[in-house]
């Protein structure tokens, strides 16, 4: 459905709550068409993000481990990897 949402199952270390919430936000943005909230949309948007975050965390906890890691890193890990390589010239 949305190319920007990456696979969280099988990450090592496992998906963080921030990564799960970021994926939930992207999903809710996509299905709702709301890119930035207003007074009229903020409550419903945040409730949906909470529900999707909780459901995603439960799903990841209940699925068996993946045999292979996901093909791409989630955006938050990509940012951290870029920042880390900029700091450490030996990487």
Describe it.
The protein has helices at residues 17-32, 42-62, 75-87. By secondary structure, it is mainly alpha-helical. It has one domain. α1 crosses α2 (42-62). The protein starts with 16 loop residues before the first helix and ends with a helix. The model is unreliable at 87-91 (pLDDT under 50).
Feature tags:
single chain, 91 residues, mainly alpha, 3 helices
Short synopsis of the structure:
By secondary structure, the chain is mostly helical. About 55% of the residues lie in helices and about 0% in strands.
Order of helices and strands: HHH
Number of helices: 3
Low-confidence stretches: 87-91
Portion in strands: under 5%
Give the structural class: mainly alpha
Number of domains: 1
> How many strands?
0
Q: Helix content range of the residues, please? A: 40-55%
Mean of pLDDT: 86
Radius of gyration: 15 Å
Distance between the ends:
35 Å
Global morphology: globular
What order do the helices and strands come in, and which of them pair?
Elements: H1 17-32, H2 42-62, H3 75-87
């Amino acid at each position: 459905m949305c190319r920007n949402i990456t696979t969280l199952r099988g990450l090592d270390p496992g998906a963080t709550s921030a990564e799960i919430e970021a994926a939930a936000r992207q999903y809710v943005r996509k299905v709702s068409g709301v890119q930035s909230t207003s007074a009229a949309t903020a409550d419903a948007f945040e409730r949906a993000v909470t529900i999707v975050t909780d459901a995603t965390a439960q799903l990841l906890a209940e699925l068996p481990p993946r045999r292979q890691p996901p093909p791409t890193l989630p955006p938050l890990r990509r940012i951290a990897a870029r920042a880390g390589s900029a700091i450490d010239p030996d990487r």
